[in-house]
Write a structure and sequence with these properties.
Layout lengths: L1 H29 L70 E9 L2 E9 L2 E5 L4 E2 L2 E6 L3 E6 L2 E6 L4
Antiparallel strand pairs: 1-2, 2-3, 4-5, 5-6, 6-7
Length: 162
């Protein structure tokens, strides 16, 4: 009986220690800063805390198909490819100041980008290629950037990560 009582007291201390560690981890994890989800109607841009770097490699998908036994070349569908910057632009010192254009995100349908969400001077628009909103024309779109034309001047706008 004495041996059983000793084992029970050791197990009770062990159970209390384990539950104490679990409760401590729970409150330590959730008791930090206030969480701000950054909803779409919020006019402040969402800034990523992690500094995302571009990939330093490119995947070449021209491998042999294991089922057909043939080498298949896969054409780039443009879904995740980065858009190249346009050539040098003319400098006009009397031009109006550049607008505040923010690429907020995109919609995907059948693995293709169908629409993008763009903010122009605080107004948010959902656009497709060749749409025109307040002198802003969407030319090309990709996951990480878009090419737009504003007052005849082409610009590459990078997506802001949230």
């Amino acid at each position: 009986m004495k041996k059983n009582k000793r084992l029970q007291s050791i197990l009770l201390v062990l159970v209390i220690a384990i539950w104490g560690a679990i409760v401590y981890q729970f409150f330590n994890y959730s008791g930090g800063e206030d969480f701000n989800a950054g909803y779409a109607y919020d006019s402040t841009p969402i800034v990523s805390l992690l500094d995302e770097q571009q990939d330093s490699f490119r995947i070449v998908a021209d491998y042999r198909d294991p089922f057909l036994g043939k080498r298949i070349k896969v054409a780039n569908q443009g879904g995740g490819a980065s858009l190249a910057a346009p050539g040098p632009q003319n400098f006009n010192p009397q031009a109006t100041p550049p607008p505040n254009i923010i690429y907020q995100g995109y919609s995907i349908n059948n693995n293709r980008i169908t629409r993008v969400r763009v903010s122009l001077n605080g107004k948010t628009y959902t656009m497709q290629p060749n749409d025109k909103k307040d002198q802003l024309i969407l030319k090309k779109m990709a996951k990480d950037s878009i090419i737009v034309s504003y007052q005849g001047q082409s610009m590459v706008i990078k997506r802001q990560r949230g």
